[in-house]
Amino acid sequence: MSNNESGNGIEEQLAEDIYKLMDEFEQFNGKCSFLCDTFAAVASNPECIDELTSYGFDFSLTSL
């Protein structure tokens, strides 16, 4: 195998890793956006905070 072929394999692997990382970051970003929207909604209506809401926040934040 020549150096050129070996280099192409490394480049392909790096490209694959970058796309995978981008996908993971996009999912993380979506979860953060959802939580921000949720916090804003709860902050505008604090009467809706109950035990289940608190549990949901804790569960979501722990998973991040």
Quaternary form: single chain
Largest sheet: none
Write the element-wise H/E pattern from the N-terminal end onward: HH
Shape: rod-shaped
Q: What class do helices, strands and sheet pairing give? A: mainly alpha
**Proportion in β-strands:** under 5%
What is the gyration radius calculated from CA atoms?
A: 21 Å
Sequence stretches where pLDDT stays below 50 over 5 or more residues: none
Mean pLDDT: 85
Number of strands: 0
Which features would summarize this protein structure in a list?
64 residues; mainly alpha; 0% strand; rod-shaped
Provide an overview of this structure.
By secondary structure, the chain is mainly alpha-helical. It has a domain at 25-64. It is built from two helices and no strands.
Task: Set down the secondary structure blueprint.
Layout: H1 3-44, H2 51-63
Write a short abstract of this structure.
The chain is mainly alpha-helical and 64 residues long. It has helices at residues 3-44, 51-63. The chain is rod-shaped and about 65 Å long.
